[in-house]
Inverse folding.
């Protein structure tokens, strides 16, 4: 081989089958700080559908509380025991809060399943992210990722929950005052001002979905990042105050989400008469 001729250098595969550059990236990640990912990581695929770590934990929470509800329903007694008294006290607390917004116990009992389900599901989705093993047990598959992740720390989960909540609120409003009358809130051609107001109402429904989802996601994800960083820098005793703070924040965020849903329900089921409707109302 002549002196002026360069020898081609080939990238030799390593024992693991990965290039040296890929291995270096993995080593830097493993030896660096805590694992923080803005998006939920896929654990496995069902066809083209990616099952993420947040979806796995959300499914486990759903199955757990569905099983508890079915079991508890069979154990309800006329004379309540201690555990049933706790559940009845909890339901009475929620009904009292709903009465303060709706002003009617019958309406509160009617919409209790929706509001209570949102509150319980969101609260425990927040709290389960604080359990030992969630976020720390790693899965080594297509990519290294935590096996479980708090559902509320996934924007897909909070957005889906917000969309379902807003659509349900609109359906309840349509059932309460009539589909055509409720649609008139968004499509009102009586005059240009009412038409413009209807367009604003329509846009506000989309804004509700965005604010719902980003408020919950931002608070829970920020708390997880805070705990991960504090736990990495000072793993003993120091994270405890922050952990209790996140328990409180998780409950408050669930309360805010459910109370906002309740306020939107109260607005949706109220028939707001326009000036022309008021003319045809009988005088009292």
């Amino acid at each position: 081989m002549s002196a002026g001729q360069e020898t081609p250098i080939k990238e030799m595969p390593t024992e693991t089958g990965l290039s040296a550059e890929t291995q270096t990236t993995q080593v830097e990640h493993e030896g660096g700080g805590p694992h923080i990912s803005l998006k939920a990581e896929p654990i496995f695929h069902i066809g083209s559908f990616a099952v993420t770590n947040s979806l796995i934990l959300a499914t486990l929470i759903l199955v757990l509380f569905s099983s508890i509800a079915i079991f508890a329903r069979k154990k309800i007694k006329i004379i309540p025991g201690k555990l049933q008294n706790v559940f009845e006290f909890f339901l009475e607390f929620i009904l009292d809060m709903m009465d303060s917004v709706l002003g009617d116990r019958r309406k509160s009992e009617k919409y209790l399943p929706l509001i209570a389900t949102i509150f319980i599901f969101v609260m425990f989705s927040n709290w389960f992210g604080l359990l030992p093993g969630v976020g720390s047990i790693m899965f080594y598959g297509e990519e290294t990722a935590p096996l479980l992740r708090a559902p509320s720390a996934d924007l897909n989960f909070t957005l889906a929950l917000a969309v379902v909540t807003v659509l349900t609120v609109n359906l309840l409003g349509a059932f309460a005052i009539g589909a055509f009358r409720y649609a008139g809130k968004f499509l009102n051609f009586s005059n240009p001002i009412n038409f413009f107001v209807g367009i604003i109402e329509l846009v506000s429904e989309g804004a509700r979905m965005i604010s719902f989802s980003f408020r919950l996601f931002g608070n829970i994800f920020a708390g997880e990042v805070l705990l991960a960083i504090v736990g990495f820098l000072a793993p003993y005793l120091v994270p405890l105050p922050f952990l209790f703070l996140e328990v409180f924040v998780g409950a408050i965020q669930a309360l805010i989400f459910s109370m906002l849903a309740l306020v939107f329900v109260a607005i949706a089921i109220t028939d707001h008469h326009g000036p022309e409707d008021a003319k045809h109302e009988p005088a009292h």
